[in-house]
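Second attempt. The first submission of Reverse transcriptase domain-containing protein had a stray character pasted in from the spreadsheet, which I only caught after the job came back as garbage. Lesson logged: always re-copy from the clean sequence file. Corrected sequence (261 aa) follows.
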Amino acid sequence: MTVMVSLDMEKAFNKIDMKLKEASFPSRFFKTIRAYLRDRRFYKVNWMAPSERSLLLGVPQGSALGPVLFTIYIIDIPKSDDQRVLNAADDTAILATSRNTELALKLAQVHLTKISNFSDVHGPTINPRKTQAIAFAWKQHGPFPKIKIRAMEMNWSSKIEYSGMILDKRLNFAEHLRARYRALGAVRHPILSNNCLKPKTGVMLYKSHIHPTLTYASTIWVTTAPTLHYLPCECIKSLLAISTTRIPTHFAAYIDTLERD
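This time the job returned cleanly.
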């Protein structure tokens, strides 16, 4: 069994400055980063009275350097040979695996306590109300004892979202595939009801939105939930087959290949 705890770190990008000062980086690098972070402003619009404020902490979210700086910030987070700590930008998770259910739960609890104590001293703050726990096992021998963080018990989740993927307790990615399919619902009607849509525009929509949405993390889920693989095929068909004469040849070949696979 594998226990996964997804940690919700509050304002994770807002407390990086002190760690950079403690790290032994070359002065030239530190000056570059300092120039990147300083003299930033944000505007708060309250009805008709906008006000300008200075940003003294954090990094620009969505920037290329943001995840790199955050990785530097949490590089000292407690690690163990018995557990794994996953980091994707500010998404942090603990994995504890064992054939023995009680041991897996104990390992997860011990490491969670270490990280919680670390965050209390060095930051960022862990929000126990938004932190989630899930147990991956083919046979669920529940109910399992609840894991605690700061004396607060966490309920077990049947699914959890990490780095844009929805992981269910059996890891068959059924929920993830259904969510990907539903995510395109907003564009299906406008495309299907548009009789003037040019093939060139359809190709652009496919490449920029449809294909990335459907195939996100496909190298992981393609070997699971084979009965649900029809969803991407049907979605591509319904979005592109506005009329049979408007499906590009390479799209038709792609759909046929996807269905065979």
